[in-house]
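Before any further analysis, backbone shapes were mapped to integers, which produced the following:

***
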Amino acid sequence: MPPRSTTPEASTARRFDRDHPRYKWIALSNTTVGMLLATVNSSIVLISLPAIFRGIELNPLDQNNVSYLLWMIMGFLLVSAVLVVTFGRLGDMYGRVKLYNLGFVVFTVSSIALSLDPAMGGAGALWLIGWRVVQGVGGAMIMANSTAILTDAFPGNQRGMALGINQVAAIAGSFIGLVLGGLLSEWHWRAVFWVSVPLGIIGTIWSYRSLHELSKRETDPVDWLGNITFGVGLGVLLAAITYGIQPYGDHSTGWTNPWVLAGLIGGVVLLAAFVVIETRVKYPMFHVGLFRNKVFAAGNFAGLLSAIGRGGMQFMLIIWLQGIWLPRHGYAYESTPLWAGIYLLPVTIGFLVAGPVSGWLSDRYGSKQFAVGGLLIVAASFVGLLLIPVNFPYWLFALLTFANGVGSGLFSSPNTAAVMGAVPADQRGVASGMRGMFLNAGSALSIGVFFSLMIAGLSSHLPQTLDQGLQSQGVSPEIAGQVAQLPPVGTLFAAFLGFNPLASLLGPTGALDQIPAANAATLTGKEYFPALISEPFHNGLVVVFVTAAVMMVVAALASLVGGSTGSRREAAAAAAAAPAATADDREVADELEADVEGAVPLTPVVPEEETAAAGVSRPDGTS
């Protein structure tokens, strides 16, 4: 197929026509808005939870309400992670643009419903959780197909840049959501959901008006058995990890809870069954043979580790700022969610600076050095964060978090381009979904993994420190011991939600009314608790950030071994030397050669029937 920009029809095509030379930029702008909308909403609720729970008059720290809190945090992420691969495959079969457009509709309707929550208390929380799940369905449709739509629309020499911008919007959205949620929740908790409505309506109309199907649809039947085993297996596994951070019996976490263990084991068994099913059914949901491609496999593995580290850092920095640093610098606990988002802006700025640039450069010089270098910068920033004092000078914190954002931006764009460029054209939708699944699952996993690590670090020092600190202010040994033995997750959630931790812990005991007013004021003031918890918290930070740094180094090794591509010239040479499997594969080789030399195609296009008759293998291992 000749380049769209040189066809006679292109010169007279309208701006939104599929053959117009600028159609690719329409596709990029629309899908970037879609990804930004979906990912902003994955984090906007995190920073707004205090205002939301106050708005529906529910105490999230009450033992009976913790499940509401967990599902408000995790519901969107879980559904997005579970369904994104299925929607990617359905996009391959029924139209990527069709599924993407439907995602905008579902997302917009659910945003309207969220903003109109009619109930209070538990009923209000259930309404929000239910519609957040529906919103996650819409987000999964958008995330699963936006990358594939861009891969279809852009030629190989611009694909890294386009995917880079798209992924910058995706990941930057998770940080922008923190600031936006803090600002909007100061005005009204419903505004957290209102903000998505006009953008959703505009995006829905725009996508239906401007986007076109450029891919050849698959006509295979739906692999229901594969879809069900994958969705249930991943959902059960992530739900078990979510409940693993809740206390169980005398344990500070729930990893010994039989239901959690059953979920972990059952989820792994179902996912293993999915792999077996996909190798045996005639029309699989996902060609597992794609993981024999080292670029695809290593790129997704590196993306998963990067998502876990990024999500863990986000949660730890929020707790650090809201529970310790901001109160020690004069900020009221109620205002810390807003200011935590503002003080985390250097991460977003670093990402926005590095992401598009690395995508553009990787198109010309290869992606490996940028992906590896970016991950090593992220690892170094984690080491720097664990070395600075808990009551840090802000300029040093800002510098380290900016470096973290730069490193993430350098990695994300080349990694996305490498993964999406490693699959046949007819698998781009499901491959995009698989990549989205790894990113969303990584965000969900990060909560369970890093909260558990932080709790483990706190458990060794916090009880004794808290017991001694409370008794020094006149709290009775019985109450001090009782509060000190409470699971550290309560303290972490209080700090995470911008609540006054000691007021939340001591209020139900009546201890604040039994001690002198000056002592009560000291305990619930801005200085005492942050100073008291600083040393135990730092011990937890060491465990968390060392683990995160190790993950980034392992991800860098994966990218070095096989998770990224070389330069365009090297790719063209490799395509010329290897036997192409299909017309799509030949077209990629033609693009590469034309990009590098401006010459005629490397080899003639071979019809798919001829390659099938000759028994030529596809890159995914099929014939």
